[in-house]
Amino acid sequence: QLSALETRFEDTIARSERIEPRDWMPEGYRKTLVRQIAQHAHSEIIGMQPEGNWITRAPSLRRKAILLAKVQDEAGHGLYLYSAAETLGVSRGELTEMLIEGRQKYSSIFNYPTLSYADVGTIGWLVDGAAICNQVPLCRTSYGPYGRAMIRVCKEESFHQRQGYELLMTMMQGTDEQRAMVQESVDRFWWPALMMFGPPDEDSPNTAQSMAWGIKRNTNDDLRQRFVDMSVPQAEALGVTFPDPDLKWNAERGHHDFGEPDWEEFMQVVKGNGPCNAQRIAHRRAAHEDGAWVREAALAFADRQREAARA
Ligand code: FAQ
């Protein structure tokens, strides 16, 4: 027997309407949202590092201005997402602690190094491309603050993807060496990009419940397929190939068939054993500790303002 509150919640979900912060929600729904939104926020913040690595070495002022703007946008996305999580009763400070103590995750993709400037283009094209595929449906997620944050995030991600593709297109019109740099970069990022969508559906413990609650709108495998189908013609236009001998059009299915990502590698990266996990967290921890004085000063200032207002 459902209580009146539960019935109202279920009805709201069934009508595809939004759950808002003041509405009653099951504890599991709240916890799942905190987990997913926090991971998403952490991914944006940690995701500043691989590309941030190249800001001081951008090949021109134009490329530097574009890259700076993109990395700043990622900080902004992290902040909207932490704000969305805060509506669920957790603070940004707590979430940051959980990230640097390794108690919350962030996307596996950001544990791979960026070895050449072509990686800036490839991240824009494939990583932001995968992010868009995953996030456009999240604009219709059942939790209001998360869905509304996604709308602006997706608009900015579209610009990010375009700048990456344009960068790669420019390099592909350059020298043989530049074309080789692009292909080498795509070869390294293709499989990790496919892993961004999460484990295969049969090994995804959260998908079924998250779909029933309207938090996720598609399964991991559906979105991965959509991404592959979208990327193949873009690769052809660019003149690069993907490192997958099984990748081919299947007319019967109306989709591309493709090979299996190395799920053992994925598990290792998620567990903290990827090429850059330790470095990413150490960098985030150092930035947090170096910023302690700013937080203390802001609190002291706010206290003084409050006292002045009372006097
Ligand atoms: N990496 O049961 P599921 C960006 C974990 S885009 C690490 O399938 P779920 C933009 C998962 O959390 C990247 N861990 O989980 C940008 C769970 O563990 P838990 C961020 C992963 O939640 C571009 C376990 O495996 N985007 O940042 C990954 O239903 C360029 C079992 O998995 C989002 O976060 C992974 N790839 O589905 C920024 C999108 N996949 O939590 C800078 C929102 C799975 O139980 C530069 N999130 N796990 O301990 C989602 O859509 C979902 O959370 C999924 C995973 C699809 C990622």
UniProtKB/TrEMBL annotation:
- Per its record, how is this protein called by name? 1,2-phenylacetyl-CoA epoxidase subunit A
Gene that encodes the chain: paaA
Question: Taxonomically, what lineage is the organism?
Answer: Bacteria, Bacillati, Actinomycetota, Actinomycetes, Propionibacteriales
Q: Which InterPro entries match?
A: Aromatic_CoA_ox/epox (IPR052703), Ferritin-like (IPR012347), Ferritin-like_SF (IPR009078), PaaA (IPR011881), PaaA_PaaC (IPR007814)
- PANTHER family attached here? 1,2-PHENYLACETYL-COA EPOXIDASE, SUBUNIT A, PHENYLACETIC ACID DEGRADATION PROTEIN PAA
Q: Gene3D superfamilies this protein is in?
A: 1.20.1260.10
User: What is the top-level taxon of the source organism?
Assistant: Bacteria
